[in-house]
């Protein structure tokens, strides 16, 4: 199956219809990812079909648990090579998206992608989540925060929940998660002003893999002392 058909098939299983223009954007993104990956470590997954399934379709799996059309402003924390932020932006152009990462050269790559794909209302921000979340223009400014970053849920919650406005959502993409990790994270999430509302395992189309999502509702404002200084959330999870 060629990559367009694989993309169309995978997204249709998620209930998404893709236009020719959007297919072209994914193609261009793939080409830029592979080209840049030769000189910079962006991804260990480089085969056509694997990138389409494990990066592009995986990024959009979130539509199975949340109606993205209800969201207006999203931040992708620890975006890396642009996942899930860029695929979500391609399919949901109405969203205003912030891509946050601590590595400047990754953001230079993403800025090139944004320019080449002609994406609008999307910005990159360089810095650590703990520092950026303390800035007024980012703190509690988003109705949706997503992250595919690999981190303990307690740590990830301290990175992400301060960005969300009250009644917004934080959605963590996990390859798997133990009930113990969720249980341990619940008190951290409560301290940060959130509550776990859903844990859901979703099948990744065109694969034999599953993805687990943890959905957190922001019920109260985050206390001023959070997030703690850079490095603390990972060393000493709440």
Automatic annotation (TrEMBL):
Pfam families: GidB (PF02527). CDD domains: AdoMet_MTases (cd02440). S-adenosyl-L-methionine binds at residues 78, 83, 129-130, 148. It is found in: Cytoplasm. It is an enzyme of class 2 (transferase). Its EC number is 2.1.1.-. PANTHER family: S-ADENOSYL-L-METHIONINE-DEPENDENT METHYLTRANSFERASES SUPERFAMILY PROTEIN (PTHR31760). This is Ribosomal RNA small subunit methyltransferase G.
């Amino acid at each position: 199956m060629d990559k367009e058909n694989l993309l169309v098939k995978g997204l249709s299983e998620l209930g998404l219809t893709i236009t020719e223009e959007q297919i072209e954007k994914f193609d261009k993104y793939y080409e830029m990812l592979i080209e840049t990956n030769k000189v910079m470590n962006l991804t260990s997954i480089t085969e056509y079909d694997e990138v389409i399934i494990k990066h592009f379709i995986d990024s959009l799996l979130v539509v199975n648990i949340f109606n993205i059309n209800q969201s207006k402003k999203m931040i992708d924390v620890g975006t890396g090579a642009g996942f899930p932020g860029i695929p979500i932006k391609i399919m949901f152009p109405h969203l205003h998206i912030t891509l946050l990462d601590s590595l400047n050269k990754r953001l230079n790559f993403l800025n090139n992608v944004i320019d080449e794909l002609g994406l609008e209302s999307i910005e990159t921000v360089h810095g650590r989540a703990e520092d950026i979340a303390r800035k007024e223009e980012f703190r509690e400014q988003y109705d949706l925060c997503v992250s595919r970053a690999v981190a303990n849920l307690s740590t990830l919650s301290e990175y992400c929940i301060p960005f969300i406005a009250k009644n917004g959502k934080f959605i963590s993409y996990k390859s798997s998660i133990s009930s113990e990790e969720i249980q341990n994270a619940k008190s951290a999430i409560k301290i940060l002003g959130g509550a776990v509302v859903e844990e859901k395992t979703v099948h990744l189309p065109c694969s034999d893999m599953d993805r687990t999502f943890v959905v957190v509702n922001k019920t109260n404002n985050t206390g001023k002392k959070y997030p703690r200084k850079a490095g603390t959330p990972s060393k000493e999870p709440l």
